[in-house]
Amino acid sequence: MNTLFAETLRKLRMKKGLSQIQLGKQLFVNHSTIARWESGSRLPDTATIPRLAECLGVDANTLFQLAAQSDESPNVIMVDDSKVILTEGLSVLEEVMPGAEIKGFIWPQEAVTYAKTNRVALAVLDIELGNSSGLELCRTLLEINPRTNIVFLTAYPDYSLDAWSTEACGFMLKPITTEGVRQQLKKLRYPFLTGGVDA
Predict the structure, then answer these.
(1) Location of each CATH 1.10.260.40 domain in the chain
(2) What's the confidence (pLDDT) of residue 3?
(3) pTM of the predicted model as reported, rounded to 2 decimal places
(4) What's the CATH code, domain 75-185?
(5) Per-residue confidence at 69, pLDDT binned at 50, 70, 90?
(6) Can you name the CATH fold of 3-68?
(7) Where do you find CATH 3.40.50.2300 in the chain?
(8) Mean pLDDT of 128-152
(9) What is the pLDDT of residue 139?
(10) Beta-carbon neighbour count of residue 15 at 10 Å?
(11) Residue % of the chain over a pLDDT of 90
(12) C-alpha closest to that of 128 among 100, 101, 158, 97
């Protein structure tokens, strides 16, 4: 739930003298959608936020920042086909982001299934996933939620050029380290609160 975004939206709408129905008509959405945004149970998508900002007379970046500040723990996933690397990596992620819900997956399809029902803030993906590709998984996760931060993890630096051809915002060489994760968190396109002291 995102009460900060919800309360700000309601105040801005009322300041403009708009009802939920009137704002919904301007955005071409049902007033029940506005009600869900104002209850904090849903957030507008990235394409709608600039239009919403224009209707309310505020800077779109303000709304984007508020949308990123959820009351809930951010969901972070790591996908690697090596159980040893996955176990070690999850420990590092939990140390750096104690306020996050962190899940690990060996199979890409399990990660996709999880992402369809949970808003993933950060996905740390191995580039080589057995018969699958972390690059393809990246594209699938971004189709589900364009605001997912993707960081690639690999033992082969030669893959970095392939990684940058996607919408990823970071790249780490194995083994994953606390300092490496902290550095990547500073470069995220869509920052979120991690609960970490240095993050």
Answers:
(1) 3-68
(2) 78
(3) 0.64
(4) 3.40.50.2300
(5) low
(6) 434 Repressor (Amino-terminal Domain) (1.10.260)
(7) 75-185
(8) 91
(9) 93
(10) 11
(11) 57
(12) 158
Measured CA to CA, the distance from residue 3 to residue 127 in angstroms comes to: 36
Nearby residues of 86 by Cβ (< 8 Å), 6 or more positions away: 78, 80, 104, 105, 106
What type of residue sits at position 20?
Answer: Q
Q: Sheet containing 170-173: which strands, arranged edge to edge?
A: 101-105, 75-79, 120-126, 149-154, 170-173
CA 135 to chain centre: 17
Residue 78 has pLDDT above 60, yes or no: yes
Average pLDDT over residues 141-159: 86
Would the pLDDT of 198 be above 50? Answer: no
CA distance linking residue 128 with residue 60, whole number of Å: 37
Helix-, strand-, coil-residue percentages of the chain, each rounded to 5: 50, 15, 35
